[in-house]
Each structure stands twice: as C-alpha cells, then as structure tokens.
Amino acid sequence: MNEPRPAIDNPALIEQLNQLNQRVRLYAQQIWQIPLAYLGLVLLSLAGSENVQGREPGLVMVFMGAVGILVFCHYLGLVQANDWGVKKIEETESKLGLDVTVRTWPLIVCPLKLLIVLIALAELTGGAVLEGWCSQTTALICLVAVLLLLLCCICAQLSSPRREGSSSPTK
C-alpha cells in the first residue's frame, strides 16, 4: 500500500512553488496568445498594404513570413521554458510531500506550431510569387516539401518515448 508522505513545512520551497506556478501560468498564456497575435498581425498588414500607394503586398508578405520564422523560434523556446517549469514544479511538489499533479500536454501545442509555420510559409511563398522571384510551381513544390518535412518531424515527436514529466504525472 502507498503510505502518504509527510508534508514538509519549508517556506522557501513553498515560495519557490508559488513562483514556478506563476511563471508556468505566464508561459501557458503566451503559448496560446503568440500564434493568434501573429495571425492577426499578418491579416492587418495585408489589409493595410493594399491601401498604401508605393507599398507592394508581395514585399509585405515576404517580410511577415520572415517575422514568422522569428516568431516560431521564440515559440519553441517558450514551449521549452514551459516544460522546464513543469518539471521543476513536479520536483518541488515531490520535495514538499505533495501529490504531483502538474503535467503538460505536448499535443496541444502541435496545432499552434503548425499554424505559425503555415502562415509563415504562405507569406514567404505568396510574396515570392507576387514579386516575381519564383514561379507558382516552384513555390508550390517548396511549400509541399517543407510541409512534408514538418509532418515527418511531428510524427517523430509523437512516436518518440515521452520525456520524464512531460505528459503524465509522476506516481
């Protein structure tokens, strides 16, 4: 039988747990906000670029696609920071003798990663075609190749063994 562990009264660990909870909560909010904010920014920039003389929509699209690459890199770091925070919360809860209840759900962020990548790719390829830098066929081939590579990466992530603390609570 599992005997309950005695709770440890350690003010420093309790404060650390509170701080980690706040940090992870902030990361979790940003995980949802950043992809949707990027989508809104892209839509606003496209709508605004058609009304300003001298500004080419193709260049705006290429620029927003490049921004999307930076957003994606930031997003990956944010997801890693969230996973780190959850792992530290698990360790702290365990040290305090609490039931470990925190967990992350890696599949939740997959559609959001995909959203950022698809928007950035659509912007880059669409802008390149509008500017005449490549043909529609070339852009389509590049788009399909990158999407297949992304699909392979997602499948590899889903089939890999779960990291400790990343998807299921510690028993």
Question: Can you describe this structure?
Answer:
It is a single chain. This protein has helices at 11-49, 57-95, 106-130, 136-159. The protein has 171 residues and is mostly helical. The protein has one domain. Helix 1 (11-49) packs antiparallel against helix 2 (57-95), helix 1 packs parallel to helix 3 and helix 2 (57-95) packs antiparallel against helix 3 (106-130). The protein is elongated.
Order of helices and strands: HHHH
Report the sheet-strand fraction.
under 5%
Radius of gyration: 22 Å
Overall geometric form: elongated
Structural class: mainly alpha
Distance between the termini: 13 Å
Low-confidence stretches: 163-171
The figure for the number of domains is 1
Helical content band: over 70%
Strand count, sense and closure of the main sheet?
A: none
Report the strand count.
0
Provide a short characterization of the protein structure.
The chain has 171 residues and is mainly α. Helix content is 74%, strand content 0%. It has one domain.
